[in-house]
Structure to design on (433 residues):
């Protein structure tokens, strides 16, 4: 088995598309690392670079500390399972699994061992048409693993399956990779799948790494507003806010109501260096409080819509906040100077700056000025976000247990806010800690 490292890896295609942008990542021996991000963020290109199906424009791939850039795919000893794997319909399960080994000595034993690991020992004589979707998936995995690869690469292995089976198989696929103990890179655009299967998740956007961490870390402690927005169902509530000092603490003005951090809040000092921020509140950081809590932070709103889910309701509240423009959550990454450097032959040397670092001056410069309101400063927003019909996007979303009684549209609700779980981001999308 083998640790995999990506070392300032970049891939720029001939047409100028920056698919991977200065990506550094270490995957431990035997670890299951999920590459997660929206379509086009470069996930598959990273896998292809690791497999040797593409060569990097800059940077290196290392296996066990050794650079493998010069090695052909067949000499890297990696196994890949793609979304559209194909089994040979006229061959049995045993023949399908053994296919990569042809007539190598000891095939029977290797096939039997792979089949046992994947729970296929009882179906070795069947043909693919006689298998369930899950069994077929496992045969594809067994076939990939029979050569005992150093690294296992899975590219959206469940994407073609229906939702129910996908849900069932994701734990099975992860358990299999763990049982085999092989270092695994698993690509998906499905954040639920990523959180369910990963030892660690690497969140990519625009070819660049936004954060890598355990599922709990990336969910609870997102490094950027993009990570906060991309992970979690329902989505994190993201609103624009203006910051000003108040009674030794800090007040974040959300437009029609405020949240105040007490003077002893560790973030207060850092927050005061910013005029405008984005606040993030996961639905599970909010609790419907009827009647209103005394003392603690709270927000109020009128119920617009309730989605019933049996044991709970997802409640959409019009809380008068202004949603973060999508442009802020989907941070753009192109940088002509950086691109020119990558395309230069030989590639230009450092300095490399992080994507966020590059964006910071530009986004800060574009941020509009704020204006005074009855609370202090009213955040000024991009015109698109202040259109009357965009208000539904600004709803505050929370979960309410059905047992406590669900509110009805039109009800006024007070929601207590767990300030420890309040996420704060600057105008470049970077977390304020
Ligand atoms: N051979 C190629 N030539 C030019 N551009 C390419 C090539 N292959 C991929 N791209 C582009 O590189 C970017 C990253 O593609 P990639 O397939 O790695 O994304 P992805 O995150 O895996 O997306 P998806 O989830 O849709 O598969 C995309 O903009 C894609 O259009």
């Amino acid at each position: 088995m083998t640790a995999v490292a990506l070392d300032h890896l970049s891939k720029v295609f001939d047409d100028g598309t920056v698919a991977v942008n200065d990506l550094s990542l270490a995957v431990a021996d035997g670890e299951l690392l999920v590459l997660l991000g929206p379509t086009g963020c470069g996930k598959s290109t990273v896998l292809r670079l690791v497999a040797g199906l593409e060569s990097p424009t800059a940077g290196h791939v290392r296996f066990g500390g050794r650079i493998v850039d010069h090695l052909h795919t067949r000499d890297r000893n990696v196994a890949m399972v793609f979304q559209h794997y194909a089994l040979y319909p006229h061959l049995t399960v045993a023949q399908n699994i053994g296919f990569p080994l042809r007539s190598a000595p000891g095939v029977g034993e290797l096939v039997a061992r792979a089949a046992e690991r994947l729970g296929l020992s009882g179906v070795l004589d069947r043909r693919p048409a006689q298998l369930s979707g899950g069994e077929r998936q496992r045969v594809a995995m067994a076939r990939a693993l029979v050569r005992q690869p150093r690294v296992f690469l899975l590219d959206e292995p469940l994407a073609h399956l229906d939702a129910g089976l996908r849900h069932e198989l994701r734990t099975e696929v992860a358990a299999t990779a763990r049982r085999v103990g092989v270092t695994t890179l698993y690509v998906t655009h499905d954040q639920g799948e990523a959180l369910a299967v990963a030892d660690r998740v690497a969140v990519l956007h625009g070819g660049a790494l936004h954060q890598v961490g355990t599922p709990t870390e990336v969910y609870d402690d997102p490094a950027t507003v993009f990570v906060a927005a991309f992970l979690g169902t329902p989505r994190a509530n993201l609103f624009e806010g203006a910051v000003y000092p108040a009674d030794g603490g800090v007040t974040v003005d959300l437009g029609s109501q405020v949240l105040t951090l007490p003077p002893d809040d560790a973030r207060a000092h850092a927050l005061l260096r910013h005029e405008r921020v984005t606040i993030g509140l996961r639905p599970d950081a909010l609790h419907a409080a009827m009647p209103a809590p005394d003392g603690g932070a709270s927000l109020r709103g009128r119920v617009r819509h309730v989605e019933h889910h049996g044991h709970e309701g997802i409640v959409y509240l019009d809380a008068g906040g202004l949603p973060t423009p999508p442009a802020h959550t989907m941070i753009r990454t192109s940088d002509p100077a950086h691109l020119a450097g990558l395309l230069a032959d030989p590639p230009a040397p450092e300095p490399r700056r992080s994507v966020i670092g590059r964006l910071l001056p530009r986004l800060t410069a574009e941020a509009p000025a704020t204006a005074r309101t009855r609370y202090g400063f009213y955040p000024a927003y991009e015109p698109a976000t202040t259109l009357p019909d965009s208000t539904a996007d600004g709803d505050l979303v929370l979960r309410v247990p059905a047992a406590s009684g669900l509110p009805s549209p039109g009800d006024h609700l007070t929601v207590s806010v767990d300030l420890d779980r309040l996420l704060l981001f600057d105008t470049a999308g970077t977390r304020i800690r």
